[in-house]
Design goal:
Blueprint (H helix, E strand, L loop, with lengths): L15 H4 L3 H9 L9 E5 L12 H10 L3 E5 L3 E2 L2 E2 L2 H9 L3 H8 L7 E4 L4 H5 L6 E4 L8 E9 L4 E9 L7
Parallel strand pairs: 1-2
Antiparallel strand pairs: 3-4, 5-6, 7-8
Helix pairs in contact: 4-5
Length: 173
Amino acid sequence: LEDCGIKATVLLPFDQAMAALPPNDFLETYVFTGERPRVTAICIGSEWRFGREGSGTVSDLRAIARLHDCRVESVSEVLQNAMPVSSTRIREAIQAGQLAEARCLLGRDIIISGTVKSGKGIGARRLNCPTANIEAGGGLLPPDGVYAARCLLQSRGQNLPGIAYIGKSPTVT
């Protein structure tokens, strides 16, 4: 988002309580609330839905947004292989291990971030190769397997090639 010029974002945790809200309640609770920065414009896909069971439409959003002096821009969906690019398609591609497809849909590599945790040192001792055990910080992971990877070392400002193993430990004893 930063690469697109977005200066700030507000992340909303999606849960069952949020999913159960009718469209108007969703907007009043999460979008047009005094607790967050005032929303002055919303850009959505022309087929976007919101609120319980996706019952809110673009027209509903426009009507409610007008009451809050908020502009709504609706844009056509981006197509890839004659199908709309969507978060559902991206998640399904990642879960199926179709990472090239996911990369194409995202327009960038898949990013897995987390905290480096100490391991047993097996890679360094037996393989003569330092390893990093990453405790993923949430999000969707591809299927268990070995993947080509790049590792961003923020402390050093380095982006290095690597191999990522996703799966249960230990893989070597």
